[in-house]
Amino acid sequence: MASHDDADHLPEETQGYKLSQPKQSLAEYQNMDANDESLQRYKQSLGLGGGRDLSDPNDPRVCIIHALTMESPGRAPVTIDLSAPGSEATLKDRPFKIKEGCKFTMVATFKVQHEILSGLQYVQVVKRKGIKVSKDSEMLGSYAPNTEKQPLYTKRFQEEEAPSGMLARGHYNATSSFVDDDKKTHLQFEWSFDISKDW
Predict the structure, then answer these.
(1) Do the Cβ atoms of 102 and 72 come closer than 8 Å?
(2) Residue 1's pLDDT is what?
(3) What's the pLDDT score for residue 53?
(4) N or C: which end of the chain has fewer CB within 10 A?
(5) Distance CA 8, CA 107 (A)
(6) Residue 54 pLDDT
(7) Are 163 and 107 within 8 A, CB to CB?
(8) How far is it, in rounded angstroms, from Cα 145 to Cα 63?
(9) Where does the chain show beta strands of DSSP type E?
(10) Cα–Cα distance measured from residue 75 to residue 99, given in angstroms and rounded to the nearest whole number
């Protein structure tokens, strides 16, 4: 059974929502209802049937997060490089600065392989001095395996505003998770940031 802390890193459940059908293989999706026009549009929206599949047979991961980038006017983008295995291990010890009151947008870059990834969400829990101050989630969507036509996916999150004021300034720890509809965590990592008067 998951502890309360583990459940904190999962997306909120929508009351009454359940997956409409069991998970199917990529081949099953591609061969479904060839005469159904709406299903054909749905499959195209997922990127099925367009180019050579780039899945690595030696890598069992379904979703590989390459980077998480913070973009803010007046500052060069800050990128957390997650492409190398284990790269997330030292992020907590290297905080970056966020100017109080600034507007910023997060951008995730990732690759999907082997099967359709359904309902990918980004969940972030922020703590200050060990006390949870926020939990946010962003629906990224459903994706087919990447092809040569689309080697990576990029998803831009909704714009946010950093807190401001003397009480908001200081050091924060965050835990970020990428979780799908099946509650499978594809990546979870800790990182930290400082809210300050200036960049």
Answers:
(1) yes
(2) 41
(3) 85
(4) N
(5) 22
(6) 87
(7) no
(8) 9
(9) 63-72, 75-81, 96-99, 103-112, 117-128, 131-143, 153-156, 160-161, 170-179, 185-196
(10) 10
Q: CA dihedral in degrees (8, 112, 107, 168; nearest 10)?
A: 10
pLDDT of the residue at 52: 83
Structure tokens at 157: 């999150």
Query: Any idea of the CA torsion for 117, 113, 26, 179, to the nearest 10 degrees?
Result: -20
Placement of tokens 């049937």 in the chain: 49
Strand 103-112 and strand 160-161: the pairing is: antiparallel
Q: b/e per residue, 17-38, with b = 16+ CB within 10 A? A: eeeeeeeeebeebeeeeeeeee
Q: Which two tokens stand for residue 61?
A: 């991961």
C-alpha–C-alpha distance, residues 40 and 33, integer Å = 8
Q: What is the mean pLDDT of each run of 10 residues along the chain (199 residues)?
A: 55 59 60 69 66 88 94 91 83 88 95 93 95 94 90 95 92 95 93 91
Q: What is the pLDDT of residue 2?
A: 43
